[in-house]
């Protein structure tokens, strides 16, 4: 009789009602179609109200069902049992229709909020799918950009008569701001350079790509280090003037917040005379034939930072068996597993240990040693380097 009275009230309030005389009957009804709200007596033939609630909660469903237990039990232990079974609310028998309507209204608010949450979750899921698709597209583009950036470092090793140039570039991310390269100057000179654009990511990589054009060996008529005379590009611009020209270009034409460090050296292949510039880049390193390591340069200003910056021309000489190494700060500032940087002293020790290793093998060994110190293959910053080895001209 109480069930019939409740059903009449619920229908009057606009609910679609299904009745069950036992918990087992209610389970079967729920399997056919899960209801939004369940009102169940605690004491029933066979399955109890809490047992029915547990069975109801165990059913697979996308929406939430609000469960109200009708009981004459008021003991705290009984209330705890009901809540533990999954019930949301309680009503004491005999049921007061006003109180029932209030509890149903509260249940409807919760169901409405659950519906809104479900809709928002659906929108978030769709947005995440779109973001993942966008990320995959960007990542694919960045992989292609990385391949293009790696193509700027063409041959890993190339011979120029009595000189051999080797280079390496390992980007920390998909793309990076480091660049190494070389270009011949007529038949008796060669230039090598190493630069590092501030920051990381796409904007740094784009600036690196543009700078590569100004120091290109593939398109020498665009190289600002070469001057045309007699229809031939052979006359060289001194390294300090090249840095000054790049400084003006970066400030006046690129209009970028980025600046970059640079080390650029020019070697005379006939007599080993060396001219170079250091613009905020790690010190160029000369390792003599006897293994001695010299750090040269005074640091200097980065390029593209100050209009009034001046760049110093440094002169030295390579004897047969000597080599010049230009590296990025990703080498000297590379940390080990304890967070300690390699530093210049660590680089010098490394070069002493690798004095018998030459060419590309030297650079690969440096990168491998750095990875071993870190106990991992990934680096926090781009790692790049270029080495110019000078041999006896007669060899």
TrEMBL record:
InterPro entries: Bact_Sigma-Reg, CheY-like_superfamily, PPM-type-like_dom_sf, PPM-type_phosphatase-like_dom, Sig_transdc_resp-reg_receiver. One of its GO terms (biological process) is phosphorelay signal transduction system. It comes from Pseudooceanicola atlanticus. It comes from the Bacteria. The modification 4-aspartylphosphate is found at residue 41. SUPFAM superfamilies: CheY-like (SSF52172), PP2C-like (SSF81606). One of its GO terms (molecular function) is phosphatase activity. Residues 1-108 form the Response regulatory domain. Keywords: Hydrolase, Phosphoprotein. The lineage of its organism: Bacteria, Pseudomonadati, Pseudomonadota, Alphaproteobacteria, Rhodobacterales. This is Chemotaxis protein CheY.
């Amino acid at each position: 009789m109480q069930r019939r009275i409740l059903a009449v009230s619920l229908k009057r309030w606009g609910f679609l009602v299904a009745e069950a005389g036992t918990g087992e009957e209610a389970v079967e009804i729920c399997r056919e179609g899960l209801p939004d709200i369940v009102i169940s007596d605690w004491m029933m033939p066979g399955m109890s109200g809490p047992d029915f609630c547990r069975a109801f909660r165990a059913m697979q469903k996308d929406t939430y069902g609000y469960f109200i237990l009708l009981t004459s039990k008021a003991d705290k232990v009984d209330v705890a049992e009901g809540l533990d079974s999954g019930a949301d609310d309680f009503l004491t028998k005999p049921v007061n229709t006003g109180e029932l309507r209030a509890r149903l209204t509260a249940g409807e608010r919760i169901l409405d909020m659950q519906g809104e949450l479900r809709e928002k979750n659906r929108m978030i899921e769709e947005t995440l799918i779109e973001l993942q698709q966008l990320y995959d597209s960007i990542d694919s583009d960045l992989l292609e950009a990385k391949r293009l950036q790696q193509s700027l470092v063409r041959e890993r090793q190339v011979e120029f008569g009595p000189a051999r140039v080797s280079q390496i570039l390992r980007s920390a991310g998909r793309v990076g701001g480091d660049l190494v390269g070389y270009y011949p100057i007529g038949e008796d000179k060669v230039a090598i350079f190493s630069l590092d654009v501030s920051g990381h990511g796409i904007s740094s990589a784009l600036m690196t790509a543009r700078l590569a054009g100004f120091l290109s060996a593939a398109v020498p008529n665009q190289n600002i280090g070469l001057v045309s005379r007699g229809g031939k590009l052979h006359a060289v611009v001194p390294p300090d003037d090249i840095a000054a020209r790049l400084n003006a270009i970066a400030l006046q034409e690129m209009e970028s917040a980025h600046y970059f460090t640079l080390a650029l050296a020019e070697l005379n292949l006939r007599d080993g005379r060396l001219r170079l510039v250091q613009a905020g880049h790690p010190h160029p390193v000369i390792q003599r034939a006897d293994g001695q390591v010299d750090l040269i340069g005074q640091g200097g200003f980065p390029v593209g930072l100050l209009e009034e910056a001046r760049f110093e021309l440094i002169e030295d000489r390579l004897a047969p068996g000597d080599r010049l190494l230009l590296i990025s700060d990703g080498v000297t500032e590379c940390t080990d597993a304890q967070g300690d940087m390699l530093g210049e002293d660590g680089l010098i020790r490394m070069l002493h240990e690798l004095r018998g290793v030459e060419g590309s093998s030297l650079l690969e060994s440096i990168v491998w040693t750095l990875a071993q110190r870190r106990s991992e293959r990934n680096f926090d910053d781009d790692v790049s380097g270029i080495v110019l080895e000078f041999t006896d001209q007669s060899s």
